[in-house]
Amino acid sequence: MILAVILAACGGLIVGGAVTMLAERTVRGEPLSFRSRCGSCEARLGILETIPLLSWCWLSGRCRYCAERISLMHPGVEAASAGLWVAVVLRFGWGWQSLAPLVAVGALIALSVVDLHSYRLPDRLVFWSLGLSVAALLPGAAAAGDLRAVRCAIMGMFGYFGLLLAVHLISPKGLGFGDVKLALLLGLHLGWAAAVAGPGRESAADWLPVARLVFWAQLLASMLGLLGGLSLGLLRRRLNRDVLGDPQADPSRPTRLLESSFPFGPALACGAMTVVLFAESVPGA
What we know:
Shape: globular
Order of helices and strands: HHHHHHHHH
Low-confidence stretches: 254-258
Radius of gyration: 20 Å
Structural class: mainly alpha
Number of strands: 0
Oligomer: single chain
Helix content: 55-70%
Distance between the termini: 27 Å
């Protein structure tokens, strides 16, 4: 198990570094690529300068060529990715069953970073993540000889999508359609987690554990979103500037505290991933 944890931490660091590069290119509207370069001076970075977390410490948080400060987002994302990979391996073991949640970690971190910076969830990231998640889920189900996980994943995918679509239609300004599309990815993994957490149940009742996890994931996401939105609004008022502002917002229009815009994707991702990791402990499970 110690070796598995070490391998998971290393894998998470590598994925976190790759995810950060992909997210930055997506925010800037550039073609997706794993070629590393400085965002300020465009200098190509060598292998030693791209070692996750260690390179940031070695360079003292600055670019080697232009001395521009490197954002704390880079080591933060890499450390978060490593920690979540370790959590997945400790929860599901090191095998086919852990493949889907490991993919979910990378996908949700990338989407969260993009949403925080641009207030949008690009289709190419959402649907590529969905495709990779399906490809990761199928081998696990085949290895276990049980297609119930696939059935529950489909239920979760369309169930969560339908729930947030209804909310979007009722309040389009309160919930963007990007979050609705993200629900396809989140619901897929929540449905899969429901099957893993309750193996051996009758198929006729499969929708019950799926609906339960979707409910708790959305409740947790709403609480995190409310807390994050209020905290961000208070910080903006305290500093008298638009911290983590919406790039498409009109700066000439002041907003009230409760009308302060904020990206909801990270809260949705955090709520869903938390429920996936603790599906067996969810009330009523």
